[in-house]
Design goal:
heterodimer; A: mainly alpha; 7 helices; B: mainly alpha; 3 helices; about 0% strand
Chain lengths: ~260, ~110
């Protein structure tokens, strides 16, 4: 196995495919996305296949997830934010599943290597652009021109608009950037950190003698970091979903900051 | 993440003893819940605010760069865009902090 800590994020082409010179090959990233989507749908469908009034183990988990996301939307975007429930739930479930899959360092896939889907900024950026498109399109459709009051904060003397409106527009444009950067950076850093410490274990162990005994220290670190990365994997999915709710509440009530 | 209390070791002797142990358990649970409600760790919120600010600056610079490219007024777009981006980053931080304050139940300090 490669000792370069970045190698785990490399895209490997599984099936070549291109349209008009555009490389649309099926890669290990596409494979893992299909697996994540399939597992999410499959597990939820399995959990709710025989719904009971007193839920079983699987059904409890599915209902807890539902209640968790619904409560999150209610507390951040209000009850009428629930119309975005399908979008937020899908995003949350997909990111959570993708991040949990990234904790598998060996996984049934071509080459048997694990892969962190969210370690590529184009993926997280595409996800945040979905949120932003929904926000802009729904906001304009629902509020018309009043949506643009987002860029004109109320209660300031009019000459200040020359300064404040560009700042508000830039602040708005920075949302997809921060949304995608946070998820991407956390998953990338977590993966690299784990791999670096795991590499220490192997290198010190191979050195032999007293140094090999010292390899216990990075080993303990790897165990601790694995726990931490599980937390981060969940937390980042949660943060992405919460910020989605906060941003989408702007589409419902613009001018309420 | 088990939220369950430890099972009772010995059978209760009398009512007042039960009351005492129940209160001890409740006290313990309240302390745990208060700790859980203390909010995200310093590391998480630091990362949050840092990325909010960086995002503002990046978006401002990027917008300035695009304006430069299409209007051909280089380097004024990047210069002004970066400055406005700093403002937007600061605004992002203020908003993020206000959100945290609102969920924590406190009054937001500003009108914004």
């Amino acid at each position: 196995m490669a000792s370069n800590p970045i190698d785990q994020f490399q895209l490997q082409t599984i099936a070549e495919f291109s349209v008009g010179g555009l490389d649309l090959s099926f890669t290990n990233s596409s494979y893992y996305m299909l697996v994540a989507a399939g597992l999410t749908i499959g597990l939820l469908a399995m959990a709710m296949s025989r719904p009971a009034l007193v839920p079983g183990r699987m059904q409890s988990v599915a209902e807890l997830t539902y209640e968790f996301v619904a409560g999150m939307i209610r507390s951040t975007a209000g009850t009428d934010g629930l119309r975005f429930f399908p979008l937020v739930f899908t995003l949350f479930a997909f990111i959570l599943m993708a991040n949990m899959l990234s904790m598998m360092h060996y996984f049934p896939s071509p080459g048997w290597y694990g892969f962190t889907i969210m370690s590529h900024i184009i993926i997280t950026f595409a996800l945040s652009m979905i949120v932003m498109s929904v926000l802009v399109i729904y906001g304009i459709w629902k509020n018309g021109m009043k949506f643009f009051s987002l860029f004109f904060p109320a209660g300031v003397p009019w000459p200040l608009y020359f300064l404040l409106t560009p700042i508000e527009i830039i602040s708005f444009l920075s949302r997809p950037v921060t949304l995608s950067m946070r998820l991407f950076a956390n998953m990338l850093a977590g993966g690299i950190l784990l791999k670096v410490f795991a590499g220490f274990v192997v290198m010190m162990g191979a050195a032999g003698g007293l140094i090999a005994v010292g390899a216990i220290a990075p080993m303990v670190m790897v165990v601790a970091l694995t726990g931490l990365k599980f937390l981060i994997a969940f937390l980042q999915a949660y943060v992405f979903a919460v910020l989605t709710c906060i941003y989408l509440s702007d589409a419902l009530h613009p001018g309420h900051h | 993440m088990s939220d369950r209390d430890e099972p009772v070791k010995q059978p209760p002797d009398d009512a007042s003893d039960f009351e005492r142990r129940l209160n001890a358990k409740l006290e313990e649970r309240r302390a745990r819940e208060a700790k859980a409600q203390a909010g995200p760790s310093g590391w998480a919120s630091g990362l949050r605010y840092g990325s909010e600010f960086l995002g503002g600056v990046l978006a401002g610079t990027g917008l300035g760069f695009i304006v430069d490219h299409f209007a051909g007024i280089s380097p004024w777009g990047v210069l002004i865009g970066t400055l406005l981006g700093f403002g937007a980053g600061t605004l992002n931080i203020v908003r993020a902090v206000n959100e945290v304050n609102r969920t924590a139940g406190g009054e937001p300090p500003g009108d914004q």
